[in-house]
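Help wanted!
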Amino acid sequence: MKIHEYQAKEILRSFGVAVPNGRVAATPEEAGAIAQELGGRAVVKAQVHAGGRGKAGGVRVVSGPDEAAEFARGLLGGNLVTAQTGPQGVPVNTVLVEEPVDIAQELYLSVTVDGAAKAPVIIASAAGGMEIEEIAEHSPEKITQVHIDPLIGYQPFIGRRVAAALGLDAAQGRAFGALLGGLIRAFSEKDLSMIEINPLVVTGEGALLAADGKINTDENAHFRHRDLLDLRDAEQEDPLERVANERGVQYVKLDGDVGCMVNGAGLAMATMDVISQVGHAPANFLDVGGGGSEEQVAEAFKIIVSDPDVKKVLINVFGGILRCDVVANGIVSAYREVDVKAPIIVRMTGTNADEGAEILNSSGILVAVAADLNDAAAKVAEIG
Amino acid sequence: MSILVGEDTRVLVQGMSGREGTFQTERCIAYGTNVVAGVTPGRGGTTHIDRPMYDSVKEAVEQAGANVSLIFVPAAFATDALLEAAEGGVELIVCITDGLPTLDMAQVAQYLTKTGVRLIGPNCPGLTSVRERQKVGIIPGNIHQEGRIGIVSRSGTLTYEAVSQLTALGIGQSTCVGVGGDPIIGLRHRDVLELFENDPETDAVVLIGEIGGTAEQEAADYIRDHMSKPVTGFIAGATAPPGRRMGHAGAIITGTAATAEAKKDALRDAGCYVADSPGQIGITVQRMLTERRIGF
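Answered by r_m:
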């Protein structure tokens, strides 16, 4: 789960990582007042779950409280469109107002999980301020990666190794070790999947300051971090995704017009691929899950057809744990509750496929039955 | 002897008395799997679906001679179950449970590496030795045909799709392994390829990958440098947008190496046959077998 920068910085601060003074504001007046407290000059940053805010006009250094309030007024209540959002953007409901940072040097520091090494990894670079992908492309020699053995955890030698790679002097190295230790403790105690500080600023006085902070949490671990659930901002999510999420369906909204319902993430991606190979585009990713019930299938179906972009629906189910008759019953019950105009193409195979086909046939719902994946793709192209 | 499981396999099931555990264990037994025990704390001394129950893995290993553990316990208890299985003395663990915290898996994976115990999963469909009728997982038994093609995949139903395409063309399978869709798993594609390369009952391999991570590139490196047997690959997720998680926790494009195109290129460069469409996995394998003059 993504959280806002101001929330990430609160977590970092609680683990001893220095961040700029500042607070979050929900109104222009508050933004102005915070700028006043900070001495006038301030940085105002739109709080959205998307990168690329600076280039999109979501961040500005302001000269005083009036400008802070004015800039906040322009952002709050509107949507910010960045390179990482869709064309509709994401709503800006809060801004972070911080004191400006005196930058002598910008570093890059992140902690994430390396699946190949089966361990958390620290990624650091002296070329901060750029996206890590850019650094990797232009100056890969400036990237240092150090793994943390999960059975040992963070030790000071790890901090010394990374600090040396960053070219920090002895005093800065000690401060950096303390900061990195706090970062790793936050990562493990909060079950995070990513912390990225870019830039980590070396100030004119030689202090280290996290000028930006991005944190993703591991949703699989939320059961033991109820406090993290309070940080969720559902308004940053697509409305259909939010509904699907609440109903236990894995759904991601996409740009195309063929709605699809599939069991299993791999097959769902493969179904999206086959749709695009016949010149169409998927309107969504949807995995009804292995243990899906009739109700869950019905909810999933309703979510798909409630998307105004959907012009056709492809249902592709390989019955295993999830039986095809359960899927068919779910579709039929949902179909009777909502007004469905899009033609429906169904491919069902595996457990109880014949029973499922019979339920759909006798229901009177107009569906095209596809024999296999290729046939399903062909029918997506032909029908409608 | 097929890979990972075979005629010497003696399975204990952790979480066998639960709804899912019961349902799936019955299907394993019906397929022919040698299930010798169930483990549910507090149920020791009873029987369930005609198998003795034990309170701990250690007892099931010592008293029932189990050497493989199949795990169905809920996510919040699965880390404990995994470590208990490893400490309890089994040689192979297959964890079907999904939703394990990633950092728990990091600890488990490091501990397993140090103890030499193999893990398939978590968040996986498990594996089936078709030739020796040992199904340790949830892959439907009736889609297989016995043969000499090995399959390694991340996902469940896409694996069934590939298997059924092969079976429809009369191409049988030796062992079918679903390694799981999480960021940190036990055996990875590369590890299973090595087992297939050394398996006298496997002539060729189907590798099914997806967006996210670099497991397919590691696999491609192994294929290029060490494999004599031909491989057909397919990568799901060519149409997935970057930065969005496609169901599996590991299926997210972060950086160019994680894209379907980069992975397909790596496989092609390693000399693999690559199916561009998921509907063409079967016929691509058929073409590979014909061109490489491998009977099936």
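OP: Thanks! One thing I noticed: The two ends of chain A are 37 Å apart (CA to CA).
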